[in-house]
Amino acid sequence: MNPRIALMLLFAVGLGASGCSREKEVVFWLRKAPQQFTGISADAAEALTEREQGWAPVQRYESWEEWVRDGRRITGCEAVLLRLCKEPASPFSRWFIVQALGFVGSQKSVPLLLTILSDENETTQTRSSAAGALGRIGVSEVVQPLVELNRRLKWSGNPSEEEYLDESDETQLKFSVLLGLGMIDDPRVRPVLEAEIQDARADPWRKKCLLEVLANPRPEADFSR
After folding, report:
1. How far, in Å, are 93, 155, 222 from residue 194 at the CA level?
2. What is the mean pLDDT of the chain?
3. N or C: which end of the chain has fewer CB within 10 A?
4. Residue 49's pLDDT band (boundaries 50, 70, 90)?
C-alpha cells in the first residue's frame, strides 16, 4: 500500500480509537459540505474506498449557510481545522480546510493563513482559499499584507475581446486577493479595488465582479456571525 494512504488510514482510525469526539465531529461536518466535491483529496480516494464501512455516506447540507452555522457551533472547531491544516495525512484537500477556516475561524487563524498566502510553494488554489479566508475573518491587520501582495501580482493579459478571460495562476491569485480585500470593512480597500477596475489588463468578467464587490462588500457567502 502507498505509504501516504497508509498514513491516512492510521489518521482516520486514530481519530476513532482515541475517542476524540471533537475531531470526529469536525471531520463529519467537513464531509457534509453542500457541494458536489466535498474537498476529499485525490490521494485519499483509495484510502476512502478501503475504509468505506468506517466512513459511510453522509447526507450533505442543502445550503452553505446551514453548514457554516453548524460548524461555528462546534466547540473547538477552529483549533481542529488548524491541526488538520498542518497534518500531512489529512484526507481533506488543504485548500478545502483553509476555506473552512475562513467561515469558522477567528484572529487565531490569521498567522497561519498569512503564511499560506505568502508561500509560493503552495498551490494557487490553496493560496486563493487563504486570501478568501482572510477576507471572511475580516480583521484590519490583514489589509496591508493583502494590498502589498496585490501590488506585486499583475494581470497577465491585455484583453481586446469582450469575452476574454485570463486563466493564469497569477491572475487567479490576484483576483482572489482582491475579493478577499473586498470583504473587509476598511477605508484602504475601496481605492485599491477602484484602481484595479480601471486597469486595462484586467479582463471584463473580473472587472464586473469587482464592481459587484464594491456594491456589496460582504457577500451572502460570508453569512452573519
Report:
1. 34, 15, 22
2. 81
3. N
4. very low
Torsion angles phi and psi, residue 75, rounded to 5 = -60, 125
**Residue pair 2/50 in contact by the 8 Å Cβ criterion:** no
Residues of the chain with CATH 1.25.10.10: 109-225
| Residue 61, φ and ψ in degrees, nearest 5 | -65, 150
Which amino acid is present at 189?
V
> Which of the two residues, 87 and 190, has the higher pLDDT score?
190
Kindly write down the DSSP assignment for every residue of 25-38, as one continuous string: HHHHHHHT-SSSS-
CATH of the domain spanning 109-225: 1.25.10.10
Burial class (CB in 10 A: 0-12, 13-18, 19+), 196: buried
Average pLDDT of the segment spanning 72-85: 94
Sort 215 into a burial class: Cβ within 10 Å, 0-12 / 13-18 / 19+: exposed
The three grid cell numbers given for residue 91, joined into one nine-digit string: 484526507
